[in-house]
Design a protein that fits this description.
The protein is α/β, with parallel strands linked by helices and about 230 residues long. Helix content is about 40%, strand content about 10%. It has a six-stranded parallel β-sheet with strand order 2-1-3-4-5-6, with helices on both faces. It is globular. About 40% of the residues are buried.
Length: about 230
């Protein structure tokens, strides 16, 4: 049965991030709403959630909310508030939040820096080298897609989304799936498996990509999303 996929980009990105996945889902008869979150405005995660709610107010039928990286915080708030009847939440390479946590705190509370450093050493990269976006995020993205990404206007990021504390007592009562990248250099796989197990009590499904699966493996990711939707 066709579903509506509501796609949220990661920090500093926009709906372009989903431009390789959306046509595949639409070609299979699904509807797609790729949401632009106001990362450059002085808006927090709760204002981001308002944007998502407004974007889907007229949707009928099953809703699959898909959140990349930091937008996991936004998605959790949307599901917690209950204004949108989300049938399935899919978190892709997520900054998986815990109640009472802000995105800016997440890095330290999860031990991300130590995990990334260990993975850099394991793969022979200098853990003390300055971050290179192409090396960190685009190492498995096709060259033409990478060049298109870097040709776009440089994103502006407000600090406000990182300061928003998720006010919750527990995880929302929404069916949740997590997808982790086997070659993710920002959130290494063993790190993601630990965080997902500790915070949700489940295991993530693994896709053979880095952090930007929608750009690197759109067909494989779309097939996973369609499979999830078929199980509703």
């Amino acid at each position: 049965m066709p579903a509506t996929f509501v796609l949220l980009p990661g920090a500093g990105s926009d709906s372009w991030y989903w431009h390789r996945v959306a046509p595949i889902l639409e070609g299979s008869g699904h509807s797609v709403i790729a949401v632009d979150l106001p990362y450059g405005d002085d808006a927090g995660q709760y204002e981001f959630a308002d944007v998502v709610v407004d974007a889907v107010e007229d949707v009928e039928g099953s809703i699959v909310l898909v959140a990349q990286s930091m937008s996991a915080f936004t998605a959790a708030i949307v599901c917690q508030r209950g204004e949108v009847d989300v049938d399935l939440l899919v978190l892709l390479a997520p900054m998986l939040p815990a109640p009472g946590e802000a995105p800016g705190q997440w890095w330290e509370t999860t031990g991300q820096a130590e995990a990334k450093r260990a993975f850099d050493v394991l793969e022979g990269r200098d853990p003390d080298a300055p971050d290179d976006l192409r090396v960190l995020f685009f190492h498995d993205v096709p060259d033409d897609v990478t060049e298109e990404a870097f040709s776009q206007e440089e994103p502006v990021m407000s600090n406000t989304p990182f300061e928003t504390v998720w006010q919750a007592d527990g995880w929302p009562h929404v069916k949740t799936r997590v997808v982790a990248g086997r070659r993710d250099r920002l959130f290494p796989l063993d790190f993601m498996q630990r965080i997902v197990r500790e915070r949700l009590g489940i295991a993530p499904e693994v896709i053979d990509t880095g952090h930007l699966a929608a750009l690197a493996r759109p067909g494989e990711l779309a097939a996973m999303l369609e499979r999830y939707a078929s199980e509703l």
